[in-house]
Design brief:
- The protein is mostly helical.
- The protein is built from nine helices and two strands, in the order αααααββαααα.
- It has helices at about 1-10, 15-35, 40-55, 60-80, 85-105, 125-145, 155-170, 175-195, 205-235; strands at about 110, 115.
- It has a two-stranded antiparallel sheet.
- The mean pLDDT is about 90.
Length: about 240
């Protein structure tokens, strides 16, 4: 039985995906052992986060469930360095939106397959609405972050922008969610580089988001493949 479960698991993920996940886990663990060795919450959050991304890249709702857990842990970690923007973003926006995304993904399985969500494409009108909403959210959060005396407020505000775009597109099941998250990863890498100047242990967090960046890039590539596969299957010649 265990052997069958292992075969099912390895057959579900491609060799590239298994290699990507294994390399990410190794890099995160090694960096933790070298630069941290104390904050096991950071290690746990990083491992859960990178695992959520590989499932999300497959369009599997389990990725959103793991993202809910990661958001909670990351919010706590952000609080320790007074990155209130990150804390508020993940606890007040990313985590609740991950809940909505989970519900959305479960309600829209592709062809009855609960482990693969149906890819959606948003209209130009909705895209315009999304950008207007993003500007409003960014404007409001800037003053909230300023009131909390948030460290590195400009990149923290930019993180709000990219995070909102990412969670909105994730909820709407758009392949571009991964591009938005990749942009957010770059901002977060910058933020934690600034934090590392004061505390070298945060270097392990930088490595975490570098692995996230690679995984999100792969996520966009795989969702683009999924979109093409689903479109080809539903084309008139296959109906």
């Amino acid at each position: 039985m265990n052997k069958n479960k292992l075969e099912t698991f390895t057959n579900y993920f491609s060799k590239v995906e298994i290699l990507l996940w294994c390399c990410s886990v190794i890099l995160i663990t090694v960096s933790f052992c070298i630069f941290d060795r104390e904050n096991y919450l950071t290690l746990t959050a990083s491992l859960i986060g990178v695992t959520s991304l590989i499932f999300a890249a497959k369009g599997n709702p389990l990725g959103q469930f793991l993202m809910i857990i990661f958001s909670l842990l990351y919010g706590i970690i952000s609080f320790t360095f007074s990155y209130y923007g990150e804390m508020i973003t993940y606890l007040g926006m990313t985590m609740p939106m991950a809940v909505f995304a989970l519900i959305s993904w479960l309600r829209h399985p592709y062809n009855g397959n609960k482990s693969e969500v149906q890819v959606n494409h948003i209209s130009k009108k909705e895209t315009l609405f999304m950008w207007i909403l993003t500007v409003i959210v960014t404007f409001i959060f800037y003053f909230i972050l300023k009131a909390f005396h948030t460290a590195n407020i400009l990149p923290s505000t930019l993180s709000i922008t990219t995070s909102f775009l990412a969670v909105y597109l994730t909820f709407r099941r758009s392949p571009y969610y991964a591009i938005a998250y990749a942009c957010n990863d770059i901002v977060l890498i910058l933020l934690w580089i600034l934090a590392t100047i004061h505390d070298i242990t945060y270097l392990s967090v930088i490595v975490c988001f570098i692995t996230f960046l690679v995984n999100d890039i792969y996520g966009f590539i795989n969702w683009s493949r999924m979109a093409k596969k689903q479109a080809d299957f539903e084309s008139p010649q296959n109906s």
